[in-house]
């Protein structure tokens, strides 16, 4: 710890020097801004206009320079160099289809020929979750369906799917993928099902777009364009096939229309339907031809030869993986192409060609980053022609810049290549960027680049932060030039800014979006105030004729029955205080989230009647106070762990099936024990083996088997052992959630761990069980909150751990998302979305053990307390937690009546929603 004076002095000098250089560089950077007296910061146009994609919560492909991450079923414990290996999650299935002689799409042939070709008037517009679920249900019962997608790419950097058309033999479905963007994962299972043939025409792009937007992977494809190739058709366009087989003509120009429009014009709806509707019939015709086609090389009577070839080529398409184009020097490709065009057209070039080239590069770089920041296409930001004109003429003032750009865009023949507005709103609101670029010294362009990001995205910046551009800010890692001497300072500065931005985004996304407390009142039938509550509770009484409305604003009811117990009975007026929607720590009123003073890992094991008084021990805290309180609670948990001798985390597990009487909680052995493995290791190994076992390299297979064997004491491993291993180390609660999430119960749990808990919920009572269900990361049945924001997580410097703090460790955070039956939560602020987190990935990467919650720690502590001290032990335990909270935060805004010593002894009335046994009734 001790540092001698010399070292301190060196350090101080180093810091001073760093600061000096940082300041010098900043001044050089900002100079062009300072010397322009007219410059006033304009508001970004995105603050005034919203684009449909800004409502997307789940964004898989963001605009950062980091590579796209594919769906992973298995997170193997690879050497943690942070590298993410992208493998096709269905490689096995697709390869199998390509080898298989029983081609799935032969089903197309069955019953197809008599099916009416005409397109009916009716179709189904799908734009709600329940309609989407119905569609999934329909497709679950189909062996084949046709698909087409429409994209939007002008007002988006990477583009997004604006419509998906799905046709069965009976019906055409148009899926509004803008409304349903965050729900589209519901379609994953049908698309990945090798038993169902998907017919596309020219699927090369569609397959990638579905991966990009929804992690939907197509398995078992019949591509009519590939069939055309195999049949050596004169043309392979859909228009040709429609004409030839269906006598239908289409106006392909509609393909380029703005598919974001709602409602879609009738003409576009018809066009979209046609693109999918006839595909099944066309596929049928092509299959016939493929079977009739003769081949001298194949054995006589082999009618499948060409069909198999078409199938093979189709499915080869499915093996493609979406990847972002990431240039080492962003914009460089565009710049080279512009420069080579300039060389062919010397008229544009001023005398100093190398300066012009440099300027083109810088403009392309700026256009790249600006398009990413605003989630716009490059051509929407600035056309190639405008770049050429700007670089050649180097205009200085606003008027010249604008007129030069609009003139350049007018000159272009092909209107599709230029922005519809010229100059674009991006140029209008960020003109100072262009001026800076055109004036700046050529040797600091990399600094300028970082400067722009900070200028625009940092909390003080002018442009909105979104799921699309967030990672741009947090993961800025440019390798623009070889001379990266000054990058260090730049990076340090951005790290600081990132931290603040990350917090702001966090607040934006995670705090409660509407007041938590409604402060509705409940009076006793003698007119005395009983408590404050939310609207839901109030309605519960009224709907059951247990109360009448006595006041409108705020709504108040009088109970029609004599409540058991009055607030004053328990010497506590907490429940008759109205509560303010502010942070109880510091009084912050702009944002807050719920904080549970008694950590859920304990509370969930309390006897039912002691859990119910939630409102006292759930308070509102701003993000900063939340962080402080949480840190204190985590620290105190460790103290509890030491005090009770009950470790917080599971270290290693061994199989218990040999000793039947051992209860689940004592499965755990400490890390000193040599046999056994960590539960996470065990589970990931088991999952990998179940999923990829047969395709795995022998060496890897053996390694993973070793892990599983270590758990089962070295014996031979059966498939059922692997399935059992998937839930080892989870608390019953976690296991239930795991099962529920995957719609799966464990068929092989007839003995062993689950038996200890699973008395009531008998296992084999569910519909077809397939291990696939378990392994699909987010298959159907996923809850609303889990569909949200992969990229909404603040992922930067330490904030990943931050997010975990609010989400993982114990389940506090996730519990906030449950449908409430307590005082503080309301369905209203739930639907506004408190806190989405795709916890799994984050935790796996960063707090591996947290994946298991605290395993049995909470349960063991509570059991211990109950055994030793009974319910008083629990009460005293709660008081300790309140004390920890108060000491950590010194909260100044706790509601009157809040008390560390709160008894929690309040009785439940006959009709109380909290009365034990009433809960089930309330939930229905
Ligand atoms: P399609 O496969 O014909 O339904 O086209 C799907 C999507 O690809 C359309 O919604 C367009 O966004 C895009 N697209 C296909 N061809 C073109 C083209 N020639 N020009 C512009 N966009 C196209
Ligand atoms: Mn189409
Ligand atoms: Zn902007």
Structure description:
The chain has 924 residues and is α/β, with parallel strands linked by helices. It has 36 helices and 14 strands. Strands 1-4-3-2-5-6 form a six-stranded mixed β-sheet, sandwiched between helices. The protein has a four-stranded mixed β-sheet with strand order 8-7-10-9, covered by helices on one side. A hairpin with a 4-residue loop joins strand 9 (547-551) and strand 10 (556-559). The protein binds adenosine monophosphate (AMP), manganese (II) ion and zinc ion (ZN). The site of zinc ion (ZN) has 8 residues, from loops.
Summarize the structure.
The protein contains 36 helices and 14 strands. The strands form 4 sheets. Strands 1-4-3-2-5-6 form a 6-stranded mixed β-sheet, sandwiched between helices. A 4-stranded mixed β-sheet has the order 8-7-10-9, covered by helices on one side. A two-stranded antiparallel ribbon has the order 11-12.
Taken from the alpha-carbon principal axes, the silhouette is globular
Q: Quick one: how many beta strands?
A: 14
Q: Could you give the order of strands across the largest sheet?
A: 1-4-3-2-5-6
Radius of gyration: 32 Å
Largest sheet: 6 strands, mixed
Through-space gap between termini: 60 Å
Which small compounds were modeled alongside the protein? Answer: adenosine monophosphate, manganese (II) ion, zinc ion
Helix tally? 36
